[in-house]
Design a protein that fits this description.
heterodimer, A: alpha+beta, 3-stranded antiparallel β-sheet, 3 helices, 20% strand, globular, B: alpha/beta, 9-stranded mixed β-sheet, two-stranded antiparallel sheet, 11 strands
């Protein structure tokens, strides 16, 4: 019966430069070809994402930290790393607060 | 593909639909007295075939639909549900199974997940087992729901708890929220009952008092704050006590549509209660034609149909005058302002009726059932 399943108490995920974010399994990055845009599909939600966010999310594979991702983006977009890091922490925190992101800690496994 | 937006001569911009509520069947083991299905339930013999449903979903995806809600009745009573889910998954549609949670066994759930099912929503009539079973009129229902929720957690399938709220369970709201948390739900929908069809018939048995309603909103808002980033809470407010109406369906035929078990395509699940509209069947006409060109879908698009006080109201693009079905049911005219709006001349009597009913002892429920066929001996 259900009562036997002890769930870990769940807490809000706070995003920082060491976070190794990855989209939860039930959230899908989807190209909406009818409207020519990218969206995140989640239960009862369609969240539009711009091209830069798509680029960020494609790098969020649970292996790379946000600091590492910011480094790479700084090179690719020729922009200051600190600024990018702050921006992507904001972006990922926003998605985490929607419940779409999990952190993949280095010492997992 | 082209950006899907059709500019009509009368300057109404029709956007592509985003969501489809597919009522796969009206059969259901529960008899909830606020069921959103119409009073006249559609018989199993009239249901669309597997091939017809597949065509509906293919056409919907092509139209721009992103999410589908497999609903009922109880959708798992369709033996072809796995085949339907596999088809929608192949189309890239995000699938949401809306179930009472009393009919699935674990093996079938696993088959549905393997077929690509994305998300499951289980209704809980209460967190109190006895009251839950009483309201749904089903023996042992609560334990089955709990068992299904447990399997979903084990399989890593996201769960939404759907909790319809009314005067006969509102005192357990905190326990309902705690139950959803305990089940590991990613989302709970605290949905004050909306009074159409069965719920309108049972309004006096369901309507909470103003004080209970305000208290419920406070409880939900506190939980939203506490559970930010942990569990999404969507609150559907009880509009009889609101100041402004809800933007019903996000606007008539603006983002969503509904297909009934027999294939009628509707702008919302209650639309058939409106007089003077002829709704097309997906067996006769393409979804694209119905969405963009049918009279019924165009009837309340834009603002040209509006009367005062809607026509000159600065909220007309925010709430679209509220709900056509509610306007018709309570004022006799579908184009009237939804009477839950304080600007409606009918508002005072609507609010008074709600308060009066909520203050009296609740009458017995009228259960949601198929009308009995006349007995042969009669």
């Amino acid at each position: 019966m259900m009562a036997e399943r002890a769930h870990m108490p769940r807490r809000r995920l706070l995003i920082g430069e060491d976070t190794r974010p990855v989209l939860k399994r039930f959230v899908r990055l989807h190209h909406d070809s009818v409207r020519s845009r990218w969206v995140l599909l989640a239960p009862e939600r369609v969240v539009e994402v711009d091209d830069i966010a798509v680029d960020v999310l494609n790098r969020c594979d649970g292996g790379r930290s946000l600091a590492q991702i910011a480094d790479a983006l700084a090179t690719d977009y020729d922009a200051p790393c600190a600024r990018i890091l702050a921006d992507i922490i904001g972006l990922v925190q926003d998605l985490a607060d929607k419940g779409y992101i999990k952190d993949n800690p280095v010492d997992a496994e | 593909m082209q950006n899907e937006m059709i500019e009509r001569p009368d300057a109404i911009r029709i956007e592509a639909p985003e969501g489809l509520l597919a009522e796969l069947t009206h059969r259901c083991p529960l008899q909830c007295p606020y069921c959103s299905n119409p009073l006249e339930l559609e018989r199993p013999t009239t249901e669309l075939s597997t091939a017809e449903w597949k065509s509906v979903f293919s056409q919907a995806a092509e139209l721009g639909v992103l999410q589908i809600h497999l609903s009922g009745g109880e959708p798992t009573l369709r033996p072809d549900l796995e085949e339907i889910v596999a088809h929608t998954s192949g189309l890239g549609l995000y699938s949401n199974l809306i179930t009472a949670g009393v009919t699935l066994d674990r093996a079938r759930l696993e088959r549905l997940v393997d077929a690509g099912l994305d998300h499951v929503q289980i209704s809980f009539q209460d967190a109190d087992a006895e009251n839950c079973n009483r309201i749904g009129a089903i023996k042992g229902g609560f334990d089955k729901k709990m068992r299904l929720a447990g399997w979903l957690a084990e399989l890593g399938v996201p769960l939404t708890v759907n909790a319809p709220l009314h005067r006969q369970n509102i005192h357990n709201l905190e326990a309902i929220l705690a139950l959803a948390e305990q089940l590991g739900a990613i989302r709970i929908e605290v949905a004050h009952v909306q009074y159409y069809g069965w719920a309108l018939k049972n309004r006096a048995a369901l309507m909470p008092t103003y004080e209970q309603t305000i208290r419920s909103v406070e409880i939900v808002e506190a939980a939203m704050e506490r559970l930010k980033g942990v569990m999404t809470i969507d609150l559907v407010v009880p509009d009889y006590y609101a100041l402004t109406p809800k933007p019903c369906m996000g606007g008539w035929a603006k983002r969503f549509f509904n297909v009934t078990p027999s294939g009628k395509m509707l702008p919302c699940h209650a639309a058939e209660s409106l007089p003077g509209l002829r709704f097309d069947n997906v067996r006769d006409r393409s979804l694209r034609d119905i969405w963009y060109d049918s009279d019924a879908f165009n009837a309340y698009r834009g603002a040209a149909w509006m009367r005062e006080p809607c026509r000159s109201c600065d909220r007309r693009e925010i709430d679209f005058g509220g709900c056509r079905c509610q306007a018709f049911a309570l004022t006799g005219e579908a184009a009237n302002t939804d009477p839950v709006c304080t600007k409606s001349p009918f508002n005072a009597q609507i609010a008074a009726a709600a308060e009066r009913e909520a203050g009296e002892a609740p009458p017995p429920f009228v259960w949601r059932r198929f009308q009995k066929a006349p007995a042969l001996s009669d």
